[in-house]
From TrEMBL:
Pfam families: MotA_ExbB (PF01618). It is found in: Cell membrane; Membrane. Its main location: membrane. This is Outer membrane transport energization protein ExbB. It comes from Algibacter luteus.
Amino acid sequence: MLNTLLQNTQTETAVLTDGESVEKTLSIIELISSGGAAGQVIIAVLFLLLVGAIYIYFERIFAIKAASKVDANFMNQIKDHVSNGKIDSAQVLCAQVNTPVSRLIGKGISRIGKPLADINTAIENAGRLEIYGLEKNVSILATISGAAPMIGFLGTVIGMILAIFELANAGGSIQMDVLASGLYTAMTTTVAGLIVGIVAYMAYNHLVVKTDKVVYQMEANSLEFLDHLNEPT
C-alpha cells in the first residue's frame, strides 16, 4: 500500500514537473512574428515612425539648446557700442555670437537711424523667421503622435477581420490556434501604436516648452534693445 502511494506521488510530481517544463514563454519578436504579414507590416511602419520621432526630437533639442545660449553680458556690450556710436562693432559682435537673439539685435542695429517703428517691424519680421527655424519639423511629431495610434487601431481591425475569417472557415469548431494569428495582429499593433503615439506626444510637448523659452528670451532682449534706443540722449 505504501509503495503504491509513493508511486502515485512520484507520477503526479513528474506530471507537474513536465507541465512546468512545457510552460511557454513568448518574446516580443515571437509575438510580432505570430501576428502574420499584415501585423508585421504595420509594426514595421510604426517602428519607422518611432525612429523618425526620436531623430527629430534629439535634432531639435540640440538645436534649441544651442539657440538658447546667450552671454549674460551680450546686451550690455551692445548697449555700450550703440551708446558710443560704434555701430560696426555692435554688428560684428552680433555676427560672432550668431544666435537667434543676436540675429534679431543685429537686424535692429542695421536699421538704426530710421524711425523706431521701422526698427520694431524689422525685428518682428526677423523674429518670425527665427521662430519658424526653431519649429522646423516639430509639427511632424504632432502628426506622428496622432497618426500612430490610428495606424495601430487599423491593425486591430485587420486582425479582428482575419480572426473572424479564420473562424468562419473553421467549420463551426472554435480553436484558439486558429484565432491566434488574427488576435496577435490586433493586440500587438494596438500596443505598438499607442507606445509610438505616447512617445511622440511627450517629445512634441517638451520641444514646444523649450521653444517657448527661447521665444520669450528673444522677445525680452528685443524689448530691452528697443527701450535703449528710445532712451533720451
